[in-house]
Design brief:
Elements lengths: L9 H15 L10 H8 L3 H7 L3 H20 L7 H18 L1 H12 L3 H21 L6 H23 L5 H17 L1
Length: 189
């Protein structure tokens, strides 16, 4: 005799639906995720998905926030490494992230730049948390000037890495060294 299927809690079902969105992100930008495909993979109806998320935008926001959380965890400094090695390690992991999730990352950055409010909000929160992370990893004081320089450096890094992934014009190590050198020069000024 088989036991009846266990009914998922609302939190478990929401987490499952977001996880499906995350699984699809390497090949599908978040704005192109179809609710029908997500529901099919979850084994539920489309209308049941909207029981857990009020709208497509709410679902996309949840997936985008989850992806940003994964990115921050992926880039987080590794305990025990000196500050100088932290930045290089974070850069290496960032380049790998963009290589793996190129289209999804590009849609995230472009969606924020295009003024899509829900993407821009998640993007800005993520950028500020990455600035916090970088300041802590590099053991730098947190002041308005350094924050501004780091935000500008992150914007440059996003653009260069995205274009490098499409058309590599230098070795990966050269790219990381270039970005690290630029960061050092900016923060010395």
């Amino acid at each position: 005799m088989t036991s009846p299927a266990r009914r998922r809690s609302a939190g478990d079902r929401r987490a499952q639906l977001v996880a499906i969105g995350l699984e699809l992100l390497p090949t599908t930008p978040v704005q192109e995720l179809t609710i029908d495909e997500v529901a099919r993979r979850a084994g539920i109806s489309r209308s049941l998905l909207f029981h857990y998320f009020a709208s497509k935008r709410d679902y996309y926001t949840a997936v985008t926030r989850a992806a940003a959380d994964v990115l921050r965890e992926h880039l987080a400094p590794r305990p025990g490494l000196p500050a100088g090695e932290q930045a290089a390690g974070m850069l290496e992991r960032y380049v790998g992230w963009v290589e793996t999730y190129r289209d999804a990352h590009l849609s995230f950055v472009r969606g924020a730049a295009a003024g899509d409010p829900w993407v821009a909000e998640v993007y800005e929160e993520t950028r500020e948390q990455l600035v916090d992370m970088a300041l802590a990893a590099l053991e730098l004081p947190d002041d308005a000037r350094r924050r501004q320089l780091l935000r500008a450096w992150f914007a440059f890094t996003e653009d260069l890495v995205s274009s490098w992934v499409r058309e590599p014009t230098m070795e990966r190590g050269e790219l990381v060294d270039l970005l690290r050198g630029l960061l050092d020069r900016l923060l010395e000024s």
